Amino acid sequence: MRRRDFLRRGGRSAAAALGASVAGAPFAVRANEMSISPTPWLAPKAVPDAERRQHEGEFLNDLRKRTFRYFLEAADPVTGLIADRARGDGSRVGEVASSAACGFGLAALSVGIDSGLISRGEAGERVRRMLFSLLHQVEHHQGFPYHFVGLRDGRRRWGCEASTIDTALLLAGAMCASTVFENDAEIVGLSDSLIRRANWSAMLDPKHGQLHMGWTPENGLLPHRWDRFSELLVMLLIAIGSDENGVPAECWNAWRREGELTYRGERFLSYPPLFVQQYSLAFFDLRDRRAASGRDFWKNSVTAHHAQIEFMHQLARRYPREFGHYGNHLWGITSSDSVDGYRDWGGPYQDGRIEPDRGIDGTVVPSAAGGGLAIVSEEALRTLMFQRHHFGERVYGRYGFVNAFNPASGWVGPDVIGIDTGITFLMAENLAVGSVWRAFMTHTIAQNALTRTGFTHLAS
Question: Beta 220-221 vs 214-216: how paired, if at all?
Fold first, then answer.
């Protein structure tokens, strides 16, 4: 069972579909009839490079401001916890927080200072408030907060698990806060206490050397383990880098390097939804590092993004009626809302099939490209700018892009989701100024993790 399977179990169904027949909306045509042509400033060589870069810079700045706004307005004023989701127009914020959204929020608030998105004083107060609530109010098991908790009371919701991966994303945000506010003894103390409290060894299967996905009071440790390539890198590296309650460095070699695909002669580890290629790299800067085995995880992610774009091209060629809108200017599928509920979709698949498996129905998920902004910047900027220009405010609103929309059917998801808005913001920041990498990589745990697992600089 993958991490996102829990999201569906947790009740994260998509809201009712919005009407498609809005006057002037580009959705009111069938996919194979859509006439999608790039605007001049998106077309290659249509304008000078300097002008194109200006347009890209203006868009990136606007996207950063909008996505950052989510972590201000979706935060409870008393607990500081970050809502799991909200309406894209800001009209309503959910009543349930997620531990991962809080982690993205801690990182966003911390790095937003240098980008001029928030004052140091306000950011410090918000970070302090959230850390205090996470330590003293949010329910947890062995230092692992429950995946979903009440925004105002911190109590477990939806019978969810205490999740190892969501805790890792939370702690990654706390690590950013600890380094950015290194001169604030209270914030550093709260961050360090939250980090040290996580008892990674309690979640470890000693026989296999793998971490369990979580724990529930009803059934104890979940039987599912992190045993193959996924978003596990950030979790396992933090667990190995921790001096207290950590796990042995040997655990790095315990997960199976299976699921390799080949794209244009390059082999890469794959799992269909693109978020698995993005979450770890939003924090760990692996651009110039190679694992002891020789694997380059940064290059792995770049290749995986290119492979998905090609996969969507092939879907469009094979099934033009349903997927004719997919292409260089409109790509990106990762776990998201859909008209039928939350879906764990992506591509390509392990067996190389070009089929709309996992229920792919023509939906576009902007965070798939948003999370790739620092990885495949040219391709990500092209599609995101196209989506904003072509579909306008129906998909691009107060917090940036809606979680998902379907150009073929006219469905537009009404919500944004904290982790998807969050990965878009963090990767936009990394592309623009590298601030998340800078904050996270200076933490001792991050440095310990790469040293203990044998990562080396590519030039070495």
Answer: antiparallel
